[in-house]
Amino acid sequence: MRVLTGIQSSGRPHLGNILGAIQPAIELSRDPDNDSFFFIADLHSLITIKDGNLREEYVRAIASTWLAFGFDTDRNVFWRQSRVPEHTEMAWYLNCFTPYPMLANAHSFKDKSEKLSDVNAGLFTYPVLQAADILLYDANIVPVGKDQKQHLEMTKDIAAAVNAQVGSEILVLPESRIDEKLMVIPGIDGQKMSKSYGNYLDIFVGEKDLMKVVKKILSDSTALEDPKNPDIDITYQLYSLIATDEQTAEMRGNYERGGYGYGHAKKALHEVILQKFKEPREVFDYYMNDRKALETKLEEGEEKARVVARQTISRMRQALGYGA
Ligand code: ADP
Ligand code: TRP
Predict the structure, then answer these.
(1) Is 2-185+291-320 CATH 3.40.50.620?
(2) Domains of the chain by residue range
(3) Which CATH class, in words, describes the domain spanning 207-276?
(4) CA of 177 to the centre of ligand 2 (A)
(5) pTM of this structure
(6) Do residues 44 and 129 make contact, with C-beta atoms less than 8 angstroms apart?
(7) 84, 230, 271, 282 — which has fewest CB within 10 A?
(8) Contact at 8 Å (CB) between 84 and 106?
(9) CA-to-CA separations, 316 to 2, 4, 175, in angstroms, rounded
(10) Which atom of ligand 2 is nearest to the CA of 44?
């Protein structure tokens, strides 16, 4: 099966992105029956980020994260959306098969257009560019979060409209893979961890900076000597997502016995992050500091991606009367 997913380069990746999206996708890519196409949606990020230097930094951070968590770029395909111009060409063709009301009624457009001050046409046609990303590579499976379900339905509708018009199955209809069990990782304030709420843990920062953020995790005012309820505590929840079962059971015991403060728990969380992500932190730093090494990986991927993208575009051009 061909697995494809993308992550927008609209910030540095946080623990929620890693546990909720990056690690599960890498897990799927380890199945020898799958070939995986993972890319950085840097064109989508222009909707909200106009500063080129910032975008470039975020692209490097997202790319370094995929590599830090062991994405095998030799066996798979890894690229920047902006470096494969077929994405935008495909998006134009698909725009002309997308009914206006489908976009106007999209949940994500409605939500974001209320929140953002810059409501540009890119925000409106976002799902069409996403459909192009997927259909260009004949993807069968698209692992995404629940919020992307509607975008995947739109992708299928657009592909079906093209196929119906040209009278043959030139586009592959993809299926979304939404892991309903996958939990929403809480941020340091207990809400969903998100770049836009400023409540995230960036696991790649230096030890001291990491401690500063861990210390800010919200906790109640139960005294150190009193027993505590681990099930309502954010530090415990985050710890249990990263630590082993034994370590988690031990912390639960400490909470319930009392004489164990939130400060102790935060120190343990800080340690377990450093220990569990020791290797990813090193690999991340390596690629963030060696631009050439990262660039080489991406350029190799971009060559592979273009070969596939060109074939689809050629099918589209022929079918629509634009030559091959
Ligand atoms: P953010 O909310 O930080 O802007 P994105 O919307 O860019 O994150 O999400 C990128 C990917 O990370 C998506 O697949 C999304 O489902 C996943 N993700 C983001 N935040 C979380 C979270 N708190 N818990 C689990 N998965 C998350
Ligand atoms: N819209 C996705 C998100 O915000 C990112 C994305 C862009 C994507 N193109 C894609 C995801 C294609 C999967 C497939 O998370």
Answers:
(1) yes
(2) 2-185+291-320, 207-276
(3) mainly alpha
(4) 13
(5) 0.94
(6) yes
(7) 282
(8) no
(9) 20, 20, 21
(10) 7
